[in-house]
Write a structure and sequence with these properties.
Chain lengths: 515, 145
């Protein structure tokens, strides 16, 4: 081929590429528009404010439930905290059961579905809108949420299905139907079906599209802007290989790297906090002051509270019911032990990791304050706090970490992509369990869901963040509506288990295999 | 009183050497029975996907069944043909810790294993199972070449 011919060929390729890019932008916009129109009414209902206030009823629903469970079980999250740690360490695990899923493994699996973008992007959104004060409410919501997690995961194990081939299926759809039937209550089947529908939507929304969307934002932030559907196709292909192709090596590598990334993230935050130790006291001052005054954020105290509660719920998923699906794989003679283990999730996810992110953002000085009044300066729209360079979401967290460790944004970008992938794999399983509950077990039925899941990866990466994040939150919170309603009826079953276990633990009937 | 020896098998020739040595020892002792043990390397602190967890019980049963049919049952049959009383055990866990635990539970007099077939980078860093067993065992260990 001559040089002229090569140049002509290259020019043709470039022209074709540009034309495709033009089409792609149109496709992205079209997907976004259609998506927003379809999901709008659903999102509006879920986030409708309580009459006469700005407070979304769904946030109140979650917080009241967490408070009720905390009181009903006598602050179980604090009374049994030490015991929970011993269970995770394996002190109470029968050596004859070695090789079964351990408490640690169930906890790690459930955490891999929750630790991720909620801790990085979600916290930045909460602090960016609600100010440092949102952190206080986030921590409170996390501590209360431990009781919700305890309740749902205990029931998840107690009422799971064990099949003849040795596999298990569990989660809210099983305890709603079986638990209600056992108590002679009507409506369990309807709630189970409703939960399954919302779980499928949640898995396609927060567990898939939001992840793909944020992963694309990270990658395009490094490589330069390009159509989202390209990232979507690549991600969909890899997800396809894992969940349809059964290529476990990819999932295994991710499972090894994700915890490492989590440790790296917490380690980096700790380093920054140690270096800036003199500002930690001030940062906590901002958190407490902001929690009760708002420090000038949009909506004041209520604005900080809503953001804190909202992001905590989205991050740790307490009351949502997803963790109950993951935890139900543990074969234990005492379902309540899995409840004890699961209550550590909101603590690790929200109280520790989210708080660290919030502290780093607060200390970094990325949020602009008025030097005269010390109050936050709002952006042009008046909805969020103005930030240096106008960063929001992951970009805000990234910029905050960069003030302490200049190269960390690159590590964070990799971490976000891996977290997104790992969350997708976890949620593909949650969605699949809901799907098989509705349509029955079977290879073809499972394949249909998995293909739909892969298709939504592409849609999520191509759509704009606004409609995606709204739909993600709405779908996941809709799961909580049904799940918590069921938990109110079933919590007496958990209390019986708790009392029986506590009595036997105190009497020495339940003994540790390791001291 | 019957003397009990625990023999660690690994499904390879090295395990066979340990078994042969144990047979010799049992004959010399006279009133002696053997426990042939196979430990499937497993850690409760490893990471799995939700789907793997859901299938874990089935896989565990399959793993135990495979080891029983391919390693333990042939070894027990061989010993019985030689007139030595023997039982088999399959467990999951850390090889060294679990062999030690089995031996203690069985009130064995000693553990017999062959020199490890492990090598490479990991054994240099973490030590081989045999080395770890010798280092941490609560009862005498014989390592066969």
């Amino acid at each position: 081929m001559t040089a002229t011919a090569m140049a002509a060929f290259a020019a043709t390729l470039l022209t074709a590429g540009a034309a495709r890019a033009q089409e792609a932008m149109t496709l992205d916009e079209r997907v976004n528009q259609i998506f927003a129109e379809i999901t709008g009414p659903f999102v509006s209902f879920i986030f409708a404010p309580l009459y006469g206030t700005d407070f979304p009823w769904i946030v109140m629903w979650l917080v009241i439930a967490a408070t009720v469970f905390t009181l009903y079980f006598g602050f179980v999250q604090f009374r049994y905290f030490g015991h929970s740690i011993r269970l995770v360490k394996g002190d109470y695990s029968d050596p004859d059961d070695a090789g079964e899923v351990s408490h640690f493994q169930a906890l790690a699996t459930a955490l891999s579905g929750t630790v991720g973008l909620g801790n990085i992007a979600g916290v930045a959104v909460a602090v960016g809108i609600g100010g440092p004060g949102a952190t206080f409410w986030m921590i409170l919501a996390g501590l209360l949420g431990m009781a919700s997690k305890f309740t749902e995961c205990t029931l998840g194990v107690k009422y799971r299905n064990e099949y003849e081939d040795g596999t298990v299926s569990g989660g809210p759809m099983y305890y709603l139907s079986k638990g209600f039937r056992e108590l002679g209550l009507p409506g369990g089947g309807v709630l189970a079906v409703l939960f399954s529908v919302f779980c499928i939507l949640g898995s396609l929304g927060g567990g898939n599209m939001f992840q793909a969307n944020q992963a694309h934002a990270q990658i395009s932030g490094i490589l330069g802007d390009y159509p989202g559907w390209i990232t979507g196709l690549v991600f969909a292909f890899v997800v396809f290989l894992v969940i349809v192709g059964g290529i476990k090596s990819i999932a295994r590598v991710t499972e090894k790297i994700v915890p490492f990334m989590g440790i790296l993230y917490v380690g980096a935050a700790l380093i920054i906090l140690i270096v800036e130790y003199d500002k930690i006291g001030w940062a906590f001052g901002q958190i407490f002051e902001g929690a009760f005054s708002g420090l000038g954020v949009a909506g004041g105290l209520v604005g900080a509270l809503i953001q804190g509660f909202k992001r905590a719920a989205f991050s740790n998923e307490a009351g949502v019911g997803s963790a109950a699906i993951a935890h139900s794989a543990v074969r234990t003679k005492e379902p309540i032990t899995e409840g004890f283990v699961s209550l550590l999730e909101p603590l690790i996810d929200t109280v520790v990791i989210c708080t660290m992110t919030a502290l780093v953002i607060t200390i970094s000085g990325q949020l602009i304050t008025d030097p005269q009044t010390g109050r936050f300066v709002l952006d042009e729209a008046g909805a969020a706090i103005a930030t240096i360079d106008g960063n929001t979401g992951v970009a805000l967290t990234s910029a905050a970490f960069a003030t302490g460790i200049s190269w960390f944004p690159y590590v964070l970008a990799v971490a976000v992509v891996l977290f997104a992938f790992s969350t997708m794999i976890s949620w593909s399983y949650y969605g699949l369990k809901a799907w098989t509950y509705l349509f029955g077990e079977g290879k073809t039925k499972e394949l249909i869901f998995k293909l739909i899941f892969c298709a939504f990866v592409v849609i999520g990466a191509a759509a704009n963040l606004g409609p995606v994040i709204d739909f993600s939150d709405a779908a996941i919170f809709a799961m909580a509506v049904v799940n918590i309603l069921g938990l109110y009826f079933l919590m007496k079953v958990v209390r019986q288990e708790l009392r029986s276990y506590g009595r036997r633990l105190r009497s020495g009937e339940i003994v540790a295999y390791r001291t | 009183m019957t003397t009990r020896l625990v023999v660690g098998l690994d499904g390879h020739a090295s395990g066979e050497r340990a078994l042969d040595f144990a047979v010799t020892q049992a004959r010399l002792i006279g009133d002696c029975d053997l426990v042939v043990a196979y430990v499937i390397e497993w850690s409760p602190f490893s990471f799995h996907s939700a789907e793997e967890n859901a299938q874990r019980h089935r896989r565990r049963e399959e793993e135990i069944s495979t080891v029983m049919s391919r390693v333990i049952d042939p070894a027990v049959n061989k010993l019985e043909k030689l007139g030595i009383k023997a039982t088999g055990v399959v467990r999951h866990g850390d090889v060294a810790d679990t062999l030690n635990a089995i031996a203690k539970q069985q009130k064995a007099a000693q553990i017999i294993v062959a020199r490890s077939s492990e090598g490479g980078f990991s054994s240099r860093i973490f030590g081989s199972s045999t080395f770890n067993l010798v280092k941490g065992a609560d009862l005498p260990v014989t390592v066969v070449q």
